[in-house]
Amino acid sequence: MDRLLSMTDAKDQIKTILDIASDLKSGKITEKPLKDKYLGMIFEKSSTRTRVSFEVGMHQLGGTPLYLSSKDLQLNRGEPIPDTARVLSRFLDCIMIRAKKHENVEELADYASIPIISGLTDKEHPCQAFADLLTIKEYKGDYNRKLVFIGDGNNVCNSLLLASAYVGMDMVVACPEGYEPDKEIYELAKEEAKKTNANISIEHNIHEAVKDADVLYTDVWVSMGDEEEQEERERIFKPYQINKQLLSEAKEDAIVMHCLPAIRDQEITDDVMTSSQSAIWDQAENRLHAQKAILYTILKE
Ligand code: CP
Ligand code: NVA
Hey, how many other C-beta atoms are within 10 angstroms of the C-beta on 47? Predict the structure, then answer.
C-alpha cells in the first residue's frame, strides 16, 4: 500500500492491518521499526484524536512526527501543491494530511514520491474506519453484524460504507432525504458488498433502520466546512438522534459508536455516551492502535 486516501486503497490489506493493530495493542509486536523515519503531519482543520494518535504512534514505533500547520507553511501564501509535494518528499518518509478538499490530497499524492495518508477530507476518513473495524471486532468477535449509521451521509459514513462492504458487514445509512452518502462511493460499496454477501442500503426512517442493529453509529450533524448550513442542518437532523429510546429499539446487546467530537443533545445524548452499551471511548483509543498499524504497514522496511 503506497497511499491511503480512500478505503479503496486499503481494500486488499484490511485484514493484515487489523491483525497488526491487534498485535500492537496486545503487546505481541514490540519492535520499533520506524527509527530514522519522519512523518510530516499537515493540518488544514482542527484535530484532537488524529493529531495525537499519529504523533504518539509514530514515537512509539521509533519514528519522528512533525506537526505542520497549513497556516505556517508556504502553502498558505500560495506555493503550489505540486512544489510542496516535491520538496517535502526530499525531507520526509511519509505525509499524513487533513485537508479541506479531497482533490488537493489527491494532487499532493500524485506529485509526492513518498506515501500520503489522509487524516480526513470532505469525502472520506479512512483512518477512522480502521479504528472502527477494530472496535467492532473486539466487541462483537466478527463482522456478521448490522451497523446502522444515523445522521449525515458524510466523510465518516463514506469510508465506513466501503469498510463494511469489504469485510462483509451489513450497513444501513439512516439519513434525511438530501443528506445521503457520496453517490459514487455508495454504488461502489453496493457492488463490493455483493462479493462479500453484505447488504448496504439507505433508509430514511430511523425506527425501521435500527431494528435488529448490532451497532448504532453517529457523527456530528455539522461537519467542519458545513458551518454555514448549521441552523438548517440542526432543524433537519433533529429526529436523527441516538438516545435511550432509539437504543432500546436495536438489539439488546447493541453497542453505540461515535468518531468524536460529539455534540451532546444533538446527534447523541450524554446518557447513551456514558452507558454500558457505549464503545465510544475504546473506539477513540483504537485510533492509536489503528494508526500505528497503518504506519507500520506503509513504512516498515
Ligand atoms: N475522529 C477524529 O478524527 O477526531 P479528531 O477530529 O479529533 O482528529
Ligand atoms: N464528519 C466530521 C468528522 C470529524 C472527525 C467532520 O468532518 O467534521
Answer: 17
State pTM to two decimals.
0.98
CA distance 75 to 52: 23
Name the residue type at position 64. Answer: T
- Asked whether residue 263 is assigned to any structural domain, the reply reads yes
Tell me which residue has its CA closest to atom 1 in ligand 1: 259
Atom of ligand 1 nearest to the CA of 127: 3
Is residue 149 within 8 Å of 223, Cβ to Cβ?
no
145-159 pLDDT tens trace: 999 999 999 999 999
Question: Could you tell me if 211 and 132 are in contact, meaning their C-beta atoms sit under 8 angstroms apart?
Answer: no
Inter-residue contact 118 to 8 (CB < 8 Å): no
Q: What is the dihedral of CA 47, 119, 42, 58, to 10 degrees?
A: 90
Backbone angles phi, psi at 41, to 5 degrees: -120, 105
The mean pLDDT value for 163-182 works out to 98
Q: Same structural domain for residues 161 and 264? A: yes
Which residues surround ligand 1 with Cβ inside 6 Å? Answer: 47-50, 120, 128, 259-260
Residue 194 maps to a domain:
yes
Ligand nearest to the CA of 258: 1
Residue 179's nearest CA partner among 152, 148, 158 is 152
Cell numbers for 156, please give them. 465518516
Residue that is written with C-alpha cell 462479493 in the block: 195
**Whether residue 98 lies in the annotated active site:** yes
Tell me whether residue 219 is one of the annotated catalytic residues: yes
Are 275 and 301 spatial neighbours (Cβ–Cβ below 8 Å)? no
CATH of the domain at 54: 3.40.50.1370
Is 230 inside a domain boundary? yes
